[in-house]
Each structure stands twice: as C-alpha cells, then as structure tokens.
Design goal:
Elements: H1 3-17, H2 19-23, H3 28-36, H4 45-54, H5 68-82, H6 90-102, H7 115-126, E1 134-136, E2 139-141, H8 148-158, H9 163-178, H10 195-200, H11 202-212, H12 217-224, H13 244-247, H14 254-274, H15 279-294, H16 298-313, H17 315-321
Antiparallel strand pairs: 1-2
Helix pairs in contact: 1-5, 3-4, 4-7, 5-6, 5-14, 6-12, 7-9, 11-12, 12-14, 14-15, 14-16, 15-16
Length: 325
C-alpha cells in the first residue's frame, strides 16, 4: 500500500470513529478533502452538495443510524480487504474508492432534481423501515406492496416526521420525477409507487448524476452497478457477463471484479447494519441470492462465490471496520 493509500485509509478510519462524523453534516469542503486524497481535486460541486446532504441525519427519528455517506465511507474501507488478491495500480485502487464514495449519490434523487427536491429524497431514504415486512392495520405487507404514500403515513403516525413535511415530500419527489420521465421512465415517481421500486431507483439516479457530471465511464459503471444482484442494472452490464479469464481470476477486465466486490460489500453492510443480521446469517443470505440468480452460469457463479468466501474469511476485519466487533 502506498503512502497516499495509507494516509487516505487512516483519514477515513479516523473520521469514521469520530462521533461528529456520524452525527453532524459534512460540508462540501470536507468531502472534497477525501476525494483530494485520491487525486481528484475538482469533483463537481453538484456531487459534493448531494453527498453533503446524504451525510446528515439531523432532525429525523433515525437514532443509531449511520448516514448514507457514512455507509459509503465504510464500504470504501471494506473494499480494500476484498481486492487485496489482485495486483492493481494506485490509480485503479483510487478509482474504485471513488466509485464507493459516490455509489449512493442517487439517494438524493434524479439528476434533474433541485436542492429542495434532493432533500426530500434524502429524507425518505433516511427514514428507518423494516426492509422485509410491515404491519399495516394488522395486515403484513412487503416492500413490493407498501406504497410511498402509506409508508410516509406510517412514519407520521410513529412521530418520525410531521404530516406537513410528509405532504411536502410527496409533492417534491413527484415534481422531480416529471422532469426526468423522458430520460428515465423506469423511475417515474407517484404517491402510489411501491417502496421496493422507490428504493431500487437510486442506482439509476446514481448512473445519471455521474454521467451528466462527466465522471469517468468506468467509475460511473462500477458505482451504479451495486444492485445488479437485485436486477437493477442502469449501465446494462449484466451480472452474468463474466469471461472465463475472470472466473479463473486471470482478469482481463478488472472492473468486472470491482463491480462484484462492490455489489457484495454493499449488500453485506446493508444486512449487517440496517438489517441487524449476524455475519453468518448475512453470508447465508448472500449465498442463497447468488445461487438463485446465477445457478445457470458457472463462470459468474464462481466469481461471486469466491468474493463471498473472501468476505467470510475476513469476518473479524469486516466487523472491526463496521464497529461490530
């Protein structure tokens, strides 16, 4: 690891452990400092502004929650352990770290969203929901059934936000959707959109934001493909698109390996932190998902399983990085 890498990782780790990093909003200048450590001195201000919004959870009933930008920082640290078995240049490693830091920028809404609309999307993503099942008037519903309108109504009843703010949020996200319908019909937002579809839309917005701001195509593709295992693939890469060389770890395209590792690191962090699953439960869930999606593609299955085995082998390191040890 180079001196620059050591400085960058130390800086991330120090800030992650600092309580103010979890509780207070990061300024655009502070976020730019992280990118500068990677050699990216002029990240577009619109991206920095969105990440700054995603670093703040003030004013919302989200106790014991990291901000979404904090999640991105943690995944940047986890990735170092997942790519240690590849020979990469400092530049390639920093491209991957850049992709990790921006992979959830789409949780601030579409590329066309105004700052006020962006905050409405951030507020929705910050609200804590059970990811698997909800109880609505004594009837259990899944994210595929629960609407945005009903979800916000539940949060009003719980006291997580006011009825006035819930109404504002609906109006803002619907208006933002109108401005991107032609380019991104897959993510049209209405009050009746199902929460599962709403959550999955963020990878499409990540892709559009990074592409519209002129971010390198490789970084954009890697960052926006972290939910390919769920079927969300805005760059149309295809999670099964793995060559025999990749499967044998004689990589022709290192970025495919990057994508696999970001996909699994993101899922691992989500299940451990937001899903409150144990390491063993998380590995078992991920294994099941991988086999369900890739049972008929031995090459891709091999690559994903080898990455998952690396996660399993590094349990202690991962739990330390996520403050779960």
């Amino acid at each position: 690891m180079s001196n620059l890498d050591e400085m960058f990782m130390h800086d991330l780790h120090a800030q992650k452990l600092h309580s103010e990093f979890r509780e207070n909003k990061r300024t655009e200048e502070q976020i730019q400092e992280l990118f500068s450590a990677l050699g990216y001195e002029n990240v577009p201000s619109s991206i920095l502004s969105r990440l700054s919004k995603l670093s703040c959870i003030e004013g919302l009933n989200v106790q014991n929650r990291n901000s979404h930008f904090q999640d991105a920082v943690e995944i940047s640290e986890l990735i170092d352990n997942l790519v240690a078995d590849y020979e990469m240049t400092e530049s390639e490693m920093n491209e991957l770290r850049f992709a990790c830091l921006v992979h959830d920028v789409g949780k601030s809404g579409p590329s066309e969203a105004t700052p006020e609309q962006q905050q409405a999307f951030v507020d929705i993503f910050n609200l804590k929901f059970n990811q698997y099942v909800y109880l609505v008037k004594n009837y259990q519903v899944t994210p595929s059934e629960l609407t945005l309108e009903k979800a916000l109504e539940i949060k009003v009843e719980e006291g997580a936000l006011s009825a006035e703010r819930a109404k504002e949020i609906i109006a803002l996200v619907v208006e933002a959707s109108k401005h991107q319908e032609i380019k991104r019909f897959e993510t049209k937002i209405t009050p009746k959109i199902r929460m599962g579809l709403f959550w999955s839309a963020h990878v499409f917005w990540t892709y559009d934001i990074l592409r519209d701001q002129g971010i390198d195509e490789k970084i954009t593709d890697v960052a926006s493909s972290h939910h390919m295992i769920d079927g969300s693939d805005p760059a149309r890469i295809g999670m099964e698109n793995v060559s025999p060389q990749m499967a044998s770890l004689e990589l022709v395209d290192k970025y495919q390996a990057f994508r696999v590792r970001l996909i699994l690191a993101d899922k691992y962090q989500a299940f451990r932190i937001r899903g409150a699953k144990s390491h063993e439960e998380t590995v078992s869930i991920l294994k099941k998902i991988i086999f369900e999606r890739l049972a008929n593609n031995l090459k891709a299955l091999t690559l994903y399983m080898e990455a998952l085995e690396l996660i399993d082998k590094n349990k202690e390191i991962f739990e330390k990085e996520l403050d779960l040890a």
